Structure formats: C-alpha cells, structure tokens
Amino acid sequence: MTRALFVGGCPASYHRLEPAEPPVRSALEALGVTVDVSGIYHPDGDERYLGGYSMLANPFLEEYDLIVLFTTGTERFGANVADLIAWTEKGGALVGIHCATDTFADDPAYVSLFGGKFRTHPAQLDITLEVTDSAHPITEGVGTFTVRDELYLFTDYDPARVHLLAQTHSYDDNGPVPLCWTREQGDGRVFYLSLGHNPTTMEDASWQKLFKNGVEWALKRC
User: Fold this and answer.
1) What is the pLDDT of residue 45?
2) What is the pTM of this model?
3) Angle in degrees, 0-180, between the axes of helices 205-218 and 17-30, rounded to the nearest 10
4) Quick check: is 145 in a domain?
C-alpha cells in the first residue's frame, strides 16, 4: 500500500489548505494512494489558524512513500527540514505544488533540493503551459493548456540542475518562465509544479493529468 502525506496551508488568507485538499486528495486516491492530510487550518474562515507542519519530521516521515507540499513561509511550525531532505535522499518521493518553493526559503539545502525559490509574482493572468520535453513520462498525454493562476518567478534557479518539463511565454521574465521540473537527489525524486494557487487550476483536467504523472514518476512507477 502506497501512503502519501499532504501538508499544506499557511497563517495568511492565501494558500489555504481547505480548498486545496479535495482536488489533491482526489488525484492521489485515483492513483490508488492512501492519503493523510496535515498542516495549518482556518476552521472559522478568518485569520485565526490551527495546526502546523510537525508531520514533516521523524518519526512521522518514515511512515510515508510520498510527501506532497502546499506550504508557505520560513517559519517551521514544527517541521524538521534536515529530516525531510534525508527522507528524500533515502528514496522518498517529494512533490511540491506552487508555494512549496516559497517555503523554508532561508534554508539553502531545501532550496537546492527543489532547484529554486520564489522571488515574486505579477497579478494573476492567463498562463499557457508549453511542454518542453514531450518524451518524458510526466508530460505523456499532456498538451498545451491555459489556466488563470498566479505565476511564480524564481531566483536561485539553475536550469542545469533541473530537468525542465514545461514553461510559459505568457509573461516575460527576461525570457520564458519555468513552470514544471524534476530533480533527483540521492535515491529520491523531486517533482515541482508551480501552477496551483487557485483551486480551479488544481481541478483543471490537464493540471490533474500533469500532477498525477508527476506523482507516478516521483514514486518510480514510470
């Protein structure tokens, strides 16, 4: 049985865990993955929050084959970044959605693990994803598609250290903006998909296909 831990949410009103959970859970369960969810919740729908990232530490990590992050900010909220990196290097499947690159950005080892970190974003816009490697298992069956979302621009991003799968020309950041890539570190695999600020993006059929393929690849199923 493959077990996944989805960790998300943040203290602010954006990147909330509650609306992100249904589309992520449905995608993972469609792959036959058992899903646990943890993170920061806003049970009253306002700025008050409960929870944290404490599941991102040993011994909890050892129970899972896959970790999916939709987290934000430098505050640890109980997470142990060194444990997460070691878990990945020992063969864990690590998947980051959108704000995962705006998490623990003060830790160079975490930034290196993902291959880049959030710098800024323009106002939301229509983003057309263009596949750059159509032969990769993650992009199999995925064509050009457009969603309205928040476009992340990156720093500490070195294209030589990642395998770029998709980009966009919908915004010029001195060239096309990377949207989706992979890395391998130790025995583990890392997949990152920057689109996903809006729940409607996560519900999009093409986003779901790309995300599922990324999970399958990270789990070494393809």
Assistant:
1) 81
2) 0.98
3) 70
4) no
